[in-house]
Amino acid sequence: MEEVVVESLLSGNREAQIEAAIELSNLSRKQRQKMSEKEIISPLLSMLQSKDSITREVSLSALLSLAFGSERNKVRIVKSGAIPMLLEILQSETKMVVVEMTMAFLLILSSCNKNKVKIASTRLIQLLVGLIGMDRLTIQAKVDGIATLHNLSTLHQIVPLVIASGAPYALLQIINFCDKSSELAEKAAALLENIISHSPESISSISGAIGVLVEAIEEGSAHCKEHAVGILLGVCNYDRETNRGMILREGVMPGLLQVSVDGTRRAKDMARELLLLLRDCSEYVIKNKQSKIEIFEQIMRDIDQEGERIPGTMLKLVEEMISKLST
């Protein structure tokens, strides 16, 4: 069976290649890895260049099966010139299942460290940033696109390319308009936090950015809240004097305090650190919110004085602050 599949792929006959690609996807992982040593990647990539959606679909399925779980095959596929072909599919394909498969394939290929620089040297980053903001893409395709950008941005030298392509703005738009408890919001917030850890100034000029993040802290899933707090912490650490007033004016306190009580472990730690950075800031807050800031500062003083001395005091005082700041 394996020999027949290889012969059909190498034959050049398109119908035989389609049948062989389908058969390849149904073989065991061990069989596929053995066959990958027989120059079958090249004919599968040639099938990607077809204008026929079915041919593209079966070749993508076969290539995905070869790449899954094999770092060696991931490198081979990229070295064989797959990325420009995948870029072409993303720009021209109208069948959404093929677009989704292409996004999934890029995600798998970008997970290999040896591929990241080569992938980033193409136009892929700019294209993905544009695509993730388009309504025509499915949620899963957007999730995979963001995850691919995240994979690439784990290399420090690639982060400036991601920023220059407009990713911070695109990610904020996604967080703003999608369900903040969704996987899409989580992925977008995670990538944005990674970007901010390298370049905290990258969202400073984006109008409404702080407000979007405050809403994510209030409405997001546990992990979305965690990433949003991490972003605000990074921004505040970068330029406390400028940014803490902006953060407070967006009404961050109730959500931030709630996270400090019932967020993930990492979110709790970051929320408490951010609370400390936001202290002593009445001079930065508009007049009609002055009373709430005074409440905050008074209860923070109480926490400092009694929180460590009396068991349960910190939780009680934080709950009191949330109640007062929410009214």
TrEMBL record:
Residue ranges constituting the U-box domain according to the UniProt record: 140-283
Keywords: Repeat, Ubl conjugation pathway
InterPro entries: ARM-like (IPR011989), ARM-type_fold (IPR016024), ARM_PUB (IPR058678), Armadillo (IPR000225)
Official protein name in the record: U-box domain-containing protein
Top-rank taxon, per record: Eukaryota
